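To: structure subgroup
Subject: Chain for Friday's discussion

All,

I'm putting the inputs and outputs inline so they're searchable in the archive.
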Amino acid sequence: MGLAVAVLGAGAYGTALAQAAAHAGHRVRLWSIEAPVLAEIAAQRRNSAYLPGVRLHRRVRPCAEMAEAVQGAALVLVAVPSRVVREVVRRAAPLLRPGQAVANAAKGLEEATGLRMSQVLEQELPEELREAIATVGGPAIAREMARRRPTALVAAARDPEVAALVRTCLENAWVRVGLSRDVIGVEISATLKNAYAIALGLCDGLGLGANVKATVASLCLAEMAETVVCLGGRRDTAFGLAGLGDLLATGYSPHSRNRTLGEKLGRGEDWQAFLASNTVEGPPAVEGCLRLARALGLHLPVLEALHSLLFEGAEPRPTLRALLERASLPA
């Protein structure tokens, strides 16, 4: 029969995670506030608003009521944008019981507080559930994972048994899940890759070629590793699935919204209109991570350049040229 798994959020990533869990043999309840999305899943086994062309497994059951979705679930996956994680978890908290685990799949910091998502969960969940918190990272372009393309994720938790539960719920014939105790490293890497994907898209938009993009990617990875270590994570996490892996997927995929934002910026297109009509985690990640970096006394030239482009009106080509001329090269 498998386990009961709840997924809160029926966007592209949440639906892809639900698809993975269903194909792993579990009974999945997919919750959303979007009634048309739930109705289409119930009637046609499709979520054309977020994952067009994908037929969902029969074990994915849409739920309009959060209480129904989380009741008896071994694992509750929170797969909503980082800006609403606190609101969703606060709503779910009274419905949860001891023995359930909660895993965050959002990749970002809370804008108002600068907290990582697991820290938000710790504040909102009952005390008896705070050791059963995990985070999910890694290169997971939703439309690829939902179409059964080979995908590797990482589940991080202080308690190895909680991370192992996430693996049990998601691992199937095409999804593998690595385990980690480095919650800080996974979350900071996952957040920064959204920011740095904008820089890689900028290289595409300016038409600067593979050499420049590879150089910028190397600078981004060096900054990511330094930040992770200074915040208490492990350097090797930045070079694993949650860091380098996710940076490559997000920074090179044509389906990445963060990369597309950077590309539009480089081409001189209306990137602000794109930002207004899409959920893009990169810009708030730039602000949040730069605040953390400055508090630690870190000098992160790529992040500073992104901030000047997104929030200070800097011009793309001279900004990138200055970065390439002045930044220390990670030899």
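Points worth raising on Friday:
Residues 95 and 180 are 28 Å apart (CA to CA).
The radius of gyration is 19 Å.

D.
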